[in-house]
Amino acid sequence: MKPQKRTTDFEKVSCDEFISGEIEKVQYEESHEFKFQGKVKTAAAVRLKFKLDGYQYPHYSRWMTFSYGEKANLYLKYLSPLVENAHPDMDFDIEALEGMKVKTLWAENNDFQNLETIRPVGGKLKFESKLPIKIEDSELLPDEDVPF
Q1: Domain interval for residue 99
Q2: In whole angstroms, what is the distance from residue 140 CA to residue 93 CA?
Q3: 90 CB contacts (<8 Å, ≥6 apart)?
Q4: d(CA 79, CA 105)
Q5: Is residue 147 over pLDDT 80?
Q6: Which of 7, 19, 23, 71 is deepest in the core (most CB within 10 A)?
Q7: Cα–Cα distance between 59 and 132 in angstroms, integer?
Q8: How far is the C-alpha of 140 from the C-alpha of 62, rounded, in Å?
Q9: Distance between terminal CA atoms of the chain?
Q10: How many domains does the chain divide into?
Q11: Distances from the Cα of 144 to the Cαs of 40, 138, 148, in angstroms?
């Protein structure tokens, strides 16, 4: 016995040029299972849904741990190039990316295509936030000229 032939074709995008489009939606899962090197980890996750110019079906980023840490893919690959003044662990609502016009570059990865590079069209999203300030120990000492 043999399985039936696949009837679903996947719409592949061109991998040798930037493709314009927009971030249509940010999808969130509270408990997403990540599998890596035979280990399973459950964590909050997000992925971006794209509407690409010239393509009929939506395309998606991979699921990423919902973290803005300095080494997190979400921060490095998406927030840094798309958000002005982005910094690790910033207080940012990711849904602000919805509707943003972008250029995307995709890469082949076996049977899948993954988003390789993303750039904003018309400038980065404005984000106003005060960066964390490091206070030196010497700044905590009172000035000698100030009476107490």
Answers
A1: 19-130
A2: 34
A3: 68, 79, 127, 129
A4: 16
A5: no
A6: 23
A7: 36
A8: 46
A9: 91
A10: 1
A11: 58, 12, 10
